[in-house]
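Model it.
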Amino acid sequence: MGKQALIIGISGQDGSYLAQFLLQKGYRVFGTSRQSLPLSNHVRLGIAEHVRLLSPDLHDSNKVRELLAQSAPDEIYNLAGQSSVSKSFEQPLETFQSIAHTNLVFLEALRQERSTTPYFYAGSSECFGDNPEPATESTPFAPTNPYAFAKASAFWQTATYRQNYGLFACTGILFNHESPLRPDYFVTHKIIRAVCQIAQGSKELLSLGNLDIARDWGYAPDYVDAMWRMLQQAHAEDIILATGITITLRDFVSIAFQEIGKDWQEYVCADATLLRPSDIRVSKAHPQKAEICLQWRATSTPQDLIRKLIAAEMEQCRI
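Modeled.
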């Protein structure tokens, strides 16, 4: 028998790709999800029949301990929680509960069980706030939105349980990473879908908010490989996962329209209603530790990512 893994939040983009990745390595994969069956991402990846889904109350410590006993995992990946910065402004309490409270419940269950099971937590670059200079693992956090302060809380919970209780618990500080599995409410998906529709003759305008924001955008399947590598280390460490390349949203849009031979300025309009109460202007990363400790680096540049997203969307349109 191969190893067993538990993925908390297995239905989302990262959970789905991680499940596929682990299955390919011979793992038996268990997962939790708040979504109803069938899980569309799993169907799309062809793994729906190979994952065992469990549905405990993740806020109940006794239920979580039963989940751990039922799945008997060799590795645990916590990818759960509300994942939209925009939605976090509308649902700050739900966002905090789904991210920080769930993480704390799992850490406490592992402590009570005196578990040595490696535990990965999916952190976020949003915790750094504005960082025009590339962030490293020692860069102080400065969260500016409900999603970010929930992620920051979960980061410190994980570090505290590692330092004080000896758990093998680590956080991957994930910078933006996208894929064809992203939900419609993510701006990257919105852009790619509009570009593909325009390529097929649509005359619609693409409404966007702040085009000056700059992000480090990577390709999600690259990142699940790094998550796995973090749990294969001799010691748990927090590590930034990013491409090291930052571009503006304007650049993202321009590259996408170049791929279909169009001038983006003819199709994009500004919409002030799409502006967030606060927004990080620039997010940069220095992912050297990942390369040194994990022998990992992102394989896709932002331009590679955009090409892959357009190709996948075009393929979906033909199905």
